[in-house]
Amino acid sequence: MKRTKILILFVFFILVHTNRFAVKYPIVNYSNSDGLPQNQVNTLLQDKLGYIWIGTQSGLGKFDGNQFEALTKKSGLPDNYITDLKLDHEGNIWVATQEGLARISPSSNYEIKSFLTTEFIYSLYFDVSKRALWIFTNNTIYTLINGQFLKFTGLTPKIQNDEDHIIRGMLIDTLGTKYFYSQSEVIRVKKGLIQAIPGPASINCLKWVDKKIIAGTADGLFQLEIKDHSLNPYIDIPIDNRSINDIIEDEKGRLWICTERGFLLYDTPSSPPVIITEENGLPSRNALTSMIDREKNIFIGTRWGLAQLSPNLLKMYEESDGLPDRFVWSFEEDTDNRSVLVGCTNGIAELNLQTGKITPFTSINARLRNNSIRTIIKLKQNEFLLGTRNQGIYLWDRKENLVNIYPRIHILSGFKNANIIWFGTDDGLLKYDGKNFKWIKKGIKDKYVWAIDKLDDNSILIGTRKGVQKIYNDTVIPSPIENSLKKDTFVNDIRVVSPEEILIATELDGLLIFKNQRLKTITTADGLLHNDVWSVIKDDIGNIWLSTSISLERYSNGFISHFNKKTGLFGDEGSVHAGFKSSEGKIYFGINPGFIEIPVPKSDITIKNPILYVKKMKVNERLTPSTRINTIYLDYNQNNIEFDYVAISTRKENPIFYRTRLLPLYSQWSEPTRETHIKYLNLLPENYTFEVIANNGGGEKQWFSSQNKIFFTIEKPFWLKWWFILIGSILIIGLIILIVRVRLHSLEKQKKMLELVVKERTEELGIKNKELQYLSVTDPLTDLKNRRYLEEKIKEDVSLIERYIFDKRKSPEKEPVGLPPLLGVYILDIDHFKKVNDHYGHKAGDIVIIDIARLLIEMLRNSDTIVRWGGEEFLIITRQYGTKENSFELAERIRKKVQGFLFKIDENVTIHKTISVGFAHFPFIPNDIENVNWSHVVSLADSALYIAKNNGRNLSVGIENGEKPLDIDFKEIVSNIKMGIENKYLDVVSLKKNLHISQHKT
Q1: 416: closest CA among 340, 333, 513?
Q2: What is the pLDDT of residue 604?
Q3: What are phi and psi of 717, to 5 degrees?
Q4: Mean pLDDT of all residues in the chain?
């Protein structure tokens, strides 16, 4: 029986590895180019603050979830080759190297101290009950207790000089029994009695698994049997993966096993493993060590880098796996064939639920090309309806028979309710009873029916560009949910969880939850990354999953988690109502470039707040020890203060945002930002309190505080202190009494001198306040104006244009004075700017930004406004009169000027950079500012920039009003630029012809 089981697993393994298909998982990889000291990761550890420590062959890495700090011999380590890491009861990190031991103390600002610097240390073990550190070297075992290193002699008869018998590590059970291991055996020591248990193969590690002692060997996993003093096979390991390097067990009892040929996941000891290699996203299949951090992320140290595997094991499928193309619009479960059918732009494919393999229906896909299958509806076994965007409705037998039963209509959505099939089209609602088609249009507020779902046996809900409506017995009737929504709510998807709970995905308005007759709105203010929601599904344990324009998101207990390229997914943007839940509870979403499978949830998601603390405080650019309780006293000229703070989190699905304030100067919290550094300049004498709060995905109600506030006082100059004033007053009074009769003139002179000093101090305070006002509207890096300045300044320009248009309308017969005012809006973005920071460092990036700012100042007039718009973006406002003919020439002149400029990074390095430019004008339509306002024009310029970047960058693109008069709400044009261009509401200006305009997903 056992041999049969091994044979079955072997055949399964061979079948999987001979197939070109390999499941892809959300894995984020790090290498030395990201800051890792070296690519071979030998050991991993998480400290009490949350930092991840990575031991490599060339140093120790300290990772805060975003960036690495490297520690080497130059930092104080005894050697760069790190063999093991352990944490003691005080939070100290112990580092084993090939040339000694080091202790890193977080309580002492991560001070490094070395010990045993002549020893080659294999591994460490910390005995929590005895608070003892065990150190295993190539010839001695030490214990460190109460600061003293002692040689352990309890194994003296067993320690040999040959390599096979050198003790490599140990375990201690709850009864205090010690288990040592070498390459050749496990040695049990209890009450002085030594028992040697030979290993079946070279032993690499010894771990607790399911309350058992498990040895990882060069030939698989073996369980230590105490009664018969033997090591017996624990679970069947595939033949190619039997050389075990490490084992960990998670809180669900799953095993994660590092082998030389892959990283294995066992849901249970008897289940077949999931094998993760380079094909699934690892940097190397040689997995050396692993760790599960407190946020449940799995870190895998490999021969060629560090991998971070999300605890959410989402599976990703794309064209290389068999999909007809990258755009997935619909799903349907085929229980008869144990599969899920996937509808794409160019055809249909089948996901086998047993093997996970995708098979396209090649022959019929040639006939369905560019039809865009928006819905798949199963009628009966091997009989389906396919609703397409371009060629109507097909009847398909799952083989070669494909009949178009209702052509020349455009299907947007579909749903089967009992024996009735409903189709949403761009011309109303279509009903099909299996024989006849019937149109339902009366009472529907908008002809575009984007979403349909069942409310009860006799009713359905439909979603259009004008909200949600209820259809009962083919008639539109009022419903509470309809009255709760705004009239212009653009609905992309509807999911009826129950008649009391309805989920609505909208465009621009986020996620709407109508529950128990109340409407709740989830938007970017609550943690969403984008308010365009394309599809929504609720899983079996209450999590709401939704796809947006830039992320797949999960809403759970007030927290929102984001899944996109930054978290290891292959794409960001979802498709309209391309969400589906199978009968067993798996969830599928169409995410460009393919689709994602979300496994059946097993438990609720609990997100803990990471530890937030202030790392550093600098005064006049010099590091100053901060304190949680005592106040720091500073001189009046120590008034430039900087703070570094961080919340250590590796959960990339929940990025950390920060807010700061400095009381009493700033009583309101700053805007949310990912920045972990802030600087205050020229602070006035005062008692200050610095505070920081953070948020890891919980919306406005989930901000959490730092463990410490920083109190500091900038003292007044001595001439403004009370004692100085008091002494001066006494002296003056004494002088007055002494010489009042003989030196009245001198007294008057002294009085005037005092008044002059007071005046000078008052003027100095006035100058400082003006400097603060100037800094509040100025970008500190480039000395350009910032957004705050633009928000105030632009009101004057817009008012001038409004006055001109009002005067012209009021007296059309009167010739206006001067030409009509016109604002040119240009948004510039530095192409591939991140590469400059990644390759040359942030200082080089600052040089590029400063030089471009200088070029813009030189090229533009004093009347124009240049604003630092974002990290590598600039916004220019030009003030013109009468005509905008030279606008494109100005954009090109700026672009070419930057293209031809040589940026000097340092004495030996110069680089070229290019920019992309998007521009528009205000007013966008001459003499019409009601329909197209200032914010619309900024959005148009930003869209023009997006077009330029999507067409190869180093390009100028302008958007102007088209030849067709505006007869629709301009919001629809702003949200769908491609539609505006195709319908001639907009016109694009650029040197490049045949621009590719990205389609706004609908």
Answers
A1: 333
A2: 56
A3: -65, 155
A4: 88
Q: Could you tell me whether strands 956-961 and 915-922 are parallel, antiparallel, or unpaired per DSSP bridges?
A: parallel
How does DSSP classify residue 294? T
Residue 346's contacts (CB-CB under 8 Å, 6 or more residues apart) are 324, 325, 365, 368, 369, 370, 371
The three-state (H, E, C) secondary structure of 734-802, written as one string: HHHHHHCCCCHHHHHHHHHHHHHHHHHHHHHHHHHHHHHHHHHCECCCCCCECHHHHHHHHHHHHHHHH
Nearest to 348 by CA among 337, 335, 364, 326: 364
- Residues near 341 by beta carbon (within 8 Å), at least 6 away in sequence: 331, 332, 333, 334, 348, 349, 350, 351, 376, 384
CATH of 31-148, one of 3.40.1620.10, 3.30.9.10, 3.30.43.10, 2.130.10.10: 2.130.10.10
Q: How far apart are CA 302 and CA 283, in angstroms?
A: 7
pLDDT digits (tens, 9 = 90+) for 62-116: 999 889 999 999 999 999 999 999 999 999 999 999 999 999 998 888 999 999 9
When pLDDT is averaged across residues 547-559 and rounded to a whole number, the result is 90
Q: Does domain 787-990 have CATH number 2.130.10.130?
A: no
* Secondary element (H or E) of residue 371: none
Please check the confidence at residue 126 and state whether its pLDDT lies above 80: yes
Q: Which helix (H) or strand (E) holds 163?
A: none
pTM confidence score: 0.67
Q: Name 523's Cβ contacts closer than 8 Å, sequence gap at least 6.
A: 509, 510, 511, 531
| Cα–Cα distance, 44 to 301 (Å, whole number) | 7
Mean per-residue pLDDT for 443-451? 96
Candidates 66, 20, 84; CA nearest to 656 is 66
Enumerate residues 6+ apart whose C-beta is below 8 A from 744: none
C-alpha closest to that of 710 among 630, 780, 781? 630
> Per CATH, the architecture of 313-408 is what?
6 Propeller (2.120)
Look at residues 645, 650, 636 and name the one whose alpha carbon lies nearest to residue 670: 645
H or E segment and range at residue 365: helix 362-368
**Span 472-493, pLDDT tens digits:** 999 999 998 998 999 899 999 9
CA distance 561 to 697: 6
Q: What is the largest CA-CA distance in the chain?
A: 123
Phi and psi (nearest 5°) for 971?
A: -60, -35
Average of per-residue pLDDT across 749-761: 71
Any idea which residue has 């000093």 for tokens?
757
Report, as residue numbers or ranges, the catalytic residues.
872
Helical ranges in 829-886 per DSSP H: 833-840, 842-859
pLDDT for 921 beyond 70: yes
CA neighbor of 76 nearest in space, from 111, 125, 34, 116: 111
Q: How many CB atoms lie within 10 A of CB 242?
A: 18
Look at the block and give the residue holding tokens 């100085």.
724
